[in-house]
Amino acid sequence: MDNNRQQIKKTVKKHIPKDWLCELRIAYRIVMEAVNDIKRTGIINLVIITTMAAILTIFGVLFRFTLSLSTFTHELGNVLEISVYLKSGTSPSIMKDRIREIKHVKTVNLISKDDSWNGLKQEMGLHDIQNPLPDTLRVRVDKPENIMEVYNNIRPISGVEDMGYAKELAKKMQVLTHVANTTMFFVIIISAALTITIINNTIQLVIQSRKDEIEIMRLMGVSNWYIKIPLVMQGAAYGFVSAVISVFPLSWLQAPLMEVHKFFLIPTPEYAQNIVIITLLVIGSAFGASGSLLSIKKHLQV
Asked: Is 82 exposed, middle or buried (0-12, 13-18, 19+ CB in 10 A)?
């Protein structure tokens, strides 16, 4: 029976001509309801926005640091090389082609034993000594975390006498990246939980203050979305305004970070500041709207 009613409603609704002016008035009324709800909340608005702005500021600062840290890790990873020392009589060109085919290998450069020996002789003033150095291949990988996998794949190849790379530096870089990513994950979870809880409690107060008004609208047959949307917009507005406020501390952080990048001759992440700002606005609005939806589902049976 209920399915038949819903089908009839949909069929009738399709044949009702759309009045765009009427829909515009409804949209205006919805926005005004959201504005009025914010006004009703009073001084609590300041507390909500300040608290959310502080939470989003912590998230934004950490996110910005993580982007810079990722750039540092990537650049350091690019200079990490695996030195592959070849056995005497092994063809360097054949070994170079074989290693280039290994997954995650970015470049392979040959340092011939003659070039290495000539440079060493000039540095140390050695003469009339037979060249003891082997041909060497300098292997770079696409990402620092793949260096161990490439190392283990090269090791068993016949013709490889010995290998080496900055193992401790690679491990520290991996640990640092893992710590940064894990911290970011937990900060996002905590920020979401705190923000949604704050909005949830606020919308609950609004629902309680408008309880009689909402009940009257329901008795008059007002649609559920007309009741819900202003509350969702209110939560999203709190999140958006808080995100805008949290952007200002980031602008003060940008200059010192750029100086650090210049000092270490490492390029600044492209569009990093814009990425952080857009992320803050999206996350702030989304968390605010999510808090409202949870409160509506829990406290408003529509």
From this structure: buried
Three-state DSSP at 126 gives: coil
Q: With beta carbons less than 8 A apart as the criterion, state whether 227 and 214 touch.
A: yes
Q: At residue 225, does pLDDT exceed 60?
A: yes
pLDDT tens for residues 257-279?
Answer: 888 878 777 777 778 888 889 99
Between 218 and 273, whose confidence is greater?
A: 273
Cβ within 8 Å of residue 162, ≥6 positions away: 85
Q: What are the C-alpha distances in Å from 49 to residues 41, 74, 217, 277?
A: 12, 37, 29, 17
Give me Rg for the CA atoms of the chain.
31
Predicted local confidence at residue 159, as pLDDT:
85
33: how many CB neighbours lie within 10 A of its CB? 19
The whole-number pLDDT of residue 151 equals 85
More confident residue, 142 or 4: 142
The whole-number pLDDT of residue 170 equals 67
Q: Is 203 in contact with 296 (CB distance < 8 Å)?
A: yes
Q: What percent of the chain has pLDDT over 90?
A: 3
Query: Phi first, then psi: what are they for 109, rounded to 5°?
Result: -115, 140
Are the CB atoms for 227 and 218 separated by under 8 Å?
yes
Element counts in the chain: helices (H) and strands (E): 10, 4
Query: In which order are the strands placed within the sheet that holds 105-111?
Result: 105-111, 136-141, 82-86, 160-164
Residues 6+ apart with CB under 8 A from 207: 214, 231, 295, 296, 299, 300
Q: Can you state the angle between helices 167-209 and 20-41, rounded to 10 degrees?
A: 100
Task: Write down all domains in the chain, each with its CATH number in brackets.
Answer: 25-75+173-299 (no CATH), 81-165 (3.30.70.3040)
Question: Read out DSSP for 66-102?
Answer: HHHHHHHHHHHHHH--EEEEEPTT--HHHHHHHHHTS
